[in-house]
């Protein structure tokens, strides 16, 4: 069983190599040509050395004087061979390097491109650490054998050349070669088969170690505040220890096989000397030929190792390739349509019609639960609709559906009457903007974070967006203004500042529909209401900048909405104005009042800190009851 799977690995490894050659045929040809040139020159050097010994040195000893002409000729030949060998090595190394790094770069690009094409549901199922190692160490591992591949191919050609030249010289010596070379090859194959499971295990552990590391650093705040440093370190150390053991197992195997691979050609040389001495006495060969063949076995030892390098790396390459192709072959990306909405600056109409939705289960055999059931509502052009509901009710899910991060199971989401599935990616992005519950800020300047390299967004637009997001004040106060670097994930900003930055980013694109998912929760309540009021009545009097779907809890904010949709457990329970719902829906009143009370209590306990982490407020947990 084990040997069957390792044979599979070898075969699949050759398939991966074949793919590499198909992708970079020209560079591969250059590298192999260099390698073959080198191999032929190795054989040639053996025969020249043999000739020097047999035809120059031995006669010279016999005569007691050296023939200068012959010596010059021999020196010239050896020099010429050396030059060609150097050219061969140069061509091979350069070609192999080019090929390996080009493939790595190409596949890194393909993998990361694929990440962006795959739907959120796929990302939900795959850990960030794994994605990082897919794009880094797995891509590298897949193409590791490319470095020694041209050498190995050249060596095969060289071995054939060596056997042929052995037969031309003497059949008895050729038999020694025929015994040693296949033995070397067989030893290499055994080596790589033994290596396969160890390499695959090491590659898997590499990904797990990077996954744990990523999670601990990402969650550094939680780890520190909860005093989990020791446990996190232990968790990491455990897996890092397994990786160490796996790599030591790899090294141990290498330690056993490397000397054997080294020793076999030396034994060959010994056999050549023994057999050759007999043949010399029989007069079948002369000194020149004996020295040539003995020397040939010595110089062959090193290149033959190249075959072993390729075979030994194949299992790791297959393991890496499997993990890379899992990403490249993943399906489920959402195909976009070809319809465009007019890019005029009027607000758009968003409509949900009987939308049902469920997240895919983490594991395929588990049943997926329904998160939204037949949700219908409309955000008329230019209107503001508030989405209110207890935690886990499905508000963020509705927000994701509105900007088509996910597609409904049944029912339709339309923008200006067009099913969002029929829109082009560009039209969708230009029309609807989501400001997510958890703000994401790039490690870049304030300007870059807001403009995002989108065409037509100048500094004036950036400032206008910042004003609408009530963020112009604090940005103006930053040391470098728009050029201030905000740190990774915006660590140098407060939570409320981060939220307003991401809001400004959405506004800078002048969307026709704005979806705010609890997007100003970390901002002072008065500022939150001011932002929404500003968005409703911005520059053009009488019309709002965009239609707005806003998830919010605060009374002052909700009260600004034209209509409130109240949902519980994925279903619309009630709709109407804030005042109507307060009067008629007990659940709604409880929720809004509880939230308000909690805010008041919190305000009494600590002076309001707009940088406070909204996630640690504990409010959501209370209102859930
Ligand atoms: N990626 C996911 N995979 C599986 N289930 C999910 C996923 N995201 C959310 N859910 C589930 O879907 C339901 C609705 O989640 P959603 O995030 O839409 O709630 P919400 O109303 O936004 O809550 P909150 O007020 O806490 O933000 C919850 O039961 C949640 O557990
Ligand atoms: Mg949410």
Strand content: 5-15%
Q: What's the overall average pLDDT, rounded?
A: 84
- Percent helix, as a range, is 55-70%
Catalogue the unreliable spans: 607-625
Termini separation: 56 Å
Main beta sheet: strand number and arrangement? 6 strands, mixed
Shape descriptor reads elongated
What is the CA-atom radius of gyration, in angstroms? 36 Å
Task: Describe the secondary-structure layout.
Blueprint: H1 2-23, H2 25-63, H3 68-117, H4 120-125, H5 128-142, H6 149-169, H7 171-218, H8 220-225, H9 229-282, H10 287-328, E1 350-358, E2 370-379, E3 384-388, H11 395-402, E4 410-415, E5 418-419, H12 425-431, E6 432-435, H13 446-451, H14 459-468, H15 472-476, H16 495-508, E7 513-517, H17 525-537, E8 547-551, H18 555-558, E9 563-568, E10 571-576, H19 578-584, H20 586-605, H21 619-624
Parallel strand pairs: 3-8, 3-9, 6-7, 7-8
Antiparallel strand pairs: 1-2, 1-4, 4-5, 9-10
Task: Provide structural commentary.
The chain is α/β, with parallel strands linked by helices. It has 21 helices and 10 strands. It has helices at 2-23, 25-63, 68-117, 120-125, 128-142, 149-169, 171-218, 220-225, 229-282, 287-328, 395-402, 425-431, 446-451, 459-468, 472-476, 495-508, 525-537, 555-558, 578-584, 586-605, 619-624; strands at 350-358, 370-379, 384-388, 410-415, 418-419, 432-435, 513-517, 547-551, 563-568, 571-576. The strands form 2 sheets. Strands 6-7-8-3-9-10 form a 6-stranded mixed beta sheet, with helices on both faces. The chain has a 4-stranded antiparallel beta sheet with strand order 2-1-4-5, with helices on one face. A hairpin with a 2-residue loop joins strand 4 and strand 5 (418-419). Helix 3 (68-117) packs antiparallel against helix 5 (128-142), helix 5 runs antiparallel to helix 7 (171-218) and helix 9 packs antiparallel against helix 10. The longest helix has 54 residues, at 229-282. It is elongated and about 120 Å long. Magnesium ion is lined by residues 395-396, 437, 517.
């Amino acid at each position: 069983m084990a040997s069957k799977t390792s044979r599979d690995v070898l075969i699949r490894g050759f398939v991966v190599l074949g793919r590499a050659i198909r992708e970079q045929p020209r560079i591969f040809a250059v590298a192999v040509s260099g390698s073959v040139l080198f191999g032929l020159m190795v054989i040639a050097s053996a025969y020249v050395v043999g000739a020097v010994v047999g035809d120059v040195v031995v006669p010279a000893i016999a005569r007691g004087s050296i023939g200068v002409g012959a010596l010059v000729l021999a020196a010239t030949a050896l020099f010429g061979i050396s030059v060609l060998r150097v050219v061969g090595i140069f061509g091979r190394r350069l070609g192999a390097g080019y090929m390996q790094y080009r493939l790595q770069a190409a596949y890194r690009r393909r993998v990361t491109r694929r990440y962006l094409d795959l739907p959120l549901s796929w990302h939900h199922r795959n850990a960030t650490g794994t994605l990082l190692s897919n794009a880094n160490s797995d891509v590298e591992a897949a193409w590791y054998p490319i470095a020694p591949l041209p050498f190995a191919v050249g060596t095969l050609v060289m071995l054939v050349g060596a056997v042929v030249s052995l037969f031309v010289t003497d059949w008895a010596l050729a038999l020694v070669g025929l015994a040693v070379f296949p033995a070397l090859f067989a030893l290499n194959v055994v080596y790589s088969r033994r290596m396969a499971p160890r390499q695959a295990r090491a590659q898997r552990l590499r990904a797990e170690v990077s996954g744990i590391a990523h999670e601990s650093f990402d969650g550094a705040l939680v780890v520190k505040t909860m005093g989990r440093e020791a446990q996190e370190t232990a968790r990491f150390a455990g897996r890092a220890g397994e990786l160490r053991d796996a790599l030591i197992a790899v090294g141990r195997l290498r330690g056993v096989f490397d000397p054997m691979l080294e020793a076999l050609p030396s034994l060959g040389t010994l056999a050549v000397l023994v057999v050759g001495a007999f043949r010399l006495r029989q007069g079948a060969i002369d000194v020149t030929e004996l020295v040539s063949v003995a020397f040939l076995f010595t110089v062959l030892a090193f290149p033959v190792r190249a075959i072993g390098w390729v075979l030994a790396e194949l299992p790791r390459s297959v393991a890496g390739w499997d993990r890379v192709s899992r990403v490249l072959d993943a399906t489920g990306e959402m195909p976009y349509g070809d319809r465009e909405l007019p890019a005029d600056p009027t607000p758009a109409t968003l409509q949900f019609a009987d939308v049902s939705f469920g997240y895919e289960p983490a594991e395929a055999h588990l049943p997926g639960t329904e998160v939204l059931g037949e949700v219908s509502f409309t955000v008329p052009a230019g209107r503001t609709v508030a989405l209110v509901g207890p935690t886990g009710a499905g508000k963020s899910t509705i927000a994701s559906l509105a900007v088509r991060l996910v597609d409904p199971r049944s029912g339709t989401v339309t923008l200006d009457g067009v099913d969002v599935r029929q829109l082009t990616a560009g039209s969708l992005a230009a029309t609807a903007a989501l400001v997510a519950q958890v703000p994401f800020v790039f490690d870049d300047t304030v300007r870059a974070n807001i403009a995002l390299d989108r065409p037509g967004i100048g500094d004036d637009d950036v400032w206008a967006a910042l004003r609408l997001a009530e963020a112009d004040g604090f940005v103006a106060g930053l040391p470098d203004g728009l050029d201030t670097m905000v740190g990774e994930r915006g660590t140098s900003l407060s939570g409320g500042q981060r939220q307003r930055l991401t809001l400004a980013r959405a506004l800078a694109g002048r969307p026709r529909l704005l979806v705010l998912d609890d997007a100003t929760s970390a901002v002072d309540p008065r500022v939150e209401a001011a932002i929404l009021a500003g968005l409703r009545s911005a520059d053009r009097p009488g019309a709002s900048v965009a239609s707005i779907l806003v998830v919010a809890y605060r009374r002052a904010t909700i009260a600004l909405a034209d209509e409130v949709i109240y949902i519980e457990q994925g279903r619309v329970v009630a709709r109407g104005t804030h005042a109507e719902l307060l009067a008629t829906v007990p659940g709604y009143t409880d929720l809004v009042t509880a939230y308000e009370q909690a805010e008041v209590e919190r305000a009494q306990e600590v002076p309001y800190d707009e940088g406070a982490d909204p996630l640690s407020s504990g409010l959501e947990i209370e209102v859930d009851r």
